Amino acid sequence: MAVTRTFSIIKPDATRRNLTGAVTKLLEEAGLRVVASKRIRMSREQAEGFYGVHKERPFFADLVAFMISGPVVVQVLEGENAVQRNRDIMGATNPANADAGTIRKELAESIEANSVHGSDSEENAAIEIAYFFKPEEIVG
Ligand code: RTP
Ligand code: MG
């Protein structure tokens, strides 16, 4: 299996509760390596652009407001089959439906404040990584 990359965000509900380390520990224990990381406050324009695919969804305005409500940590993760591996450790979007041991089951607050984002395909991972990182900021 090839070593690939995915994009992750530790969301404002997790940074607010000082869970950056707790989330990162679960990612690392799942076999993912953090090869880039920065704590930022997303602008409204950045969040609207990032979630552009959801702009017709009823939760879009709330989601954008949530994502700019506090700091986030954007990360590039590397590992074998990184996109799927990260989706597996994240758990279901709604923490109530997530499996035990996943980040969302163990740490998330609600379907919106669900602690992490992870790319859903290799194609989107490349787009999302480039949205937040310059190539020289990623050290594999
Ligand atoms: P993500 O994109 O953040 O990794 O999460 P996901 O694929 O599991 O979920 P997605 O369907 O892409 O939704 C993006 C984010 O929008 C929020 N959401 N709120 N209130 C709601 O019904 C609702 N549904 C989704 C969540 O923060 C979700 O992660
Ligand atoms: Mg998604």
TrEMBL record:
Family to which this protein belongs: Belongs to the NDK family.
UniProt keywords, alphabetically: ATP-binding, Cytoplasm, Kinase, Magnesium, Metal-binding, Nucleotide metabolism, Nucleotide-binding, Phosphoprotein, Transferase
Pfam family name, one: NDK
Keyword Cytoplasm part of the UniProt annotation: yes
Gene: ndk
Chain's role: Major role in the synthesis of nucleoside triphosphates other than ATP. The ATP gamma phosphate is transferred to the NDP beta phosphate via a ping-pong mechanism, using a phosphorylated active-site intermediate.
Molecular function terms, GO-annotated: kinase activity
Principal subcellular localization: cytoplasm
Residues annotated to bind ATP: K11, F59, R87, T93, R104, N114
Domain Nucleoside diphosphate kinase-like: 3-140
Chemical reaction(s) catalysed: a 2'-deoxyribonucleoside 5'-diphosphate + ATP = a 2'-deoxyribonucleoside 5'-triphosphate + ADP; a ribonucleoside 5'-diphosphate + ATP = a ribonucleoside 5'-triphosphate + ADP
Organism: Sphingomonas bisphenolicum
Name of the molecule in the record: Nucleoside diphosphate kinase
Active site: H117
Location(s), subcellular: Cytoplasm
Cofactor(s) required for function per UniProt: Mg(2+)
EC number in record: 2.7.4.6
Quaternary assembly: Homotetramer.
